[in-house]
Design a protein that fits this description.
This protein is of the alpha/beta class. Helix content is about 35%, strand content about 15%.
Amino acid sequence: MSAHTVTVFPASGGIGGGTVKHLLPRLQAKDLVFIARNPGNLAAEPNAGATVRKADYDDDSSLEHAFDGVHTLFLISYASAEHEYRTKRQQLAIDAAIRSGVKYIFYGSLGYGGRPETKESVAHVMQAHLDTERYLDGCTRRHPGFEYTIIREGLYSESYPLYTSFFDPASPSSTIKIPHDGSGPGIAWVKRKELGEGTAELLARFVKNPNDFQYRRQTALLSGGKTLTLKESVEILSKLAKRPVQIETITEDEFAALPQNQQNFTYHGMDYSKLWTSTFEAFRRGEGAYVDPLLKELLGREPEDFETTVSLQWL
């Protein structure tokens, strides 16, 4: 393999798939390794010449040699709202990568906290990310020569159901029941595919000129270009649904009791819907509202706005 092989794991899914798509025209395919739990999901990608491997966050043995021959790894977070379990799986993957000789990890974190230098958040879903960010920093002291970059991927527009009690455009309700009145600091929504594109550009810049890369042991935040309050976001959903939709403020317990929330926030048999309400407190504190110009610079254009992304998603 090349002296600088780049790997994406997991390479399927939203962020992974988008990053794979945009890495291929930027780097030589022979220097790319794409790892997925179901490698067949990568078959549709134009990845001729790239190496495809199988590994699963939940299978320790599959991780043991998954990263052999790799210099730089883009590690996308374990998909869950859990804390301790998620942290453990990510740390095991990091340890396996370092044992295999990986010298640099880009970690796909999440865009809570506000400014990129912020090291805390009230959002439960952010805690495993913060643990992993700290763990990577500790690895630089335990493993000389190892370095990292944190990429806080902004809250993507397509994830609006998580913050609207799973509003369904195919059968729109007239009220969105959440423990928030819709006012105050909002969300710098960002298109998921553009996060993949921006991440691929950041990785390519590192590979092509690692000595001048400015985000060594730093955090890069990829956000949308405009902040919308939850009320403004719901007004756009109402417009696209072609019916009046309003926010109804409810308690955290009432939110957690809604069947659709219980169903969608259950992981490994545990219901996280009550803990998920901490995201609304994070919004009240402005944790999702910070607009960073980095993604615009990486894309070479303005990031797509929330209304355009969601309207295309509904087509």
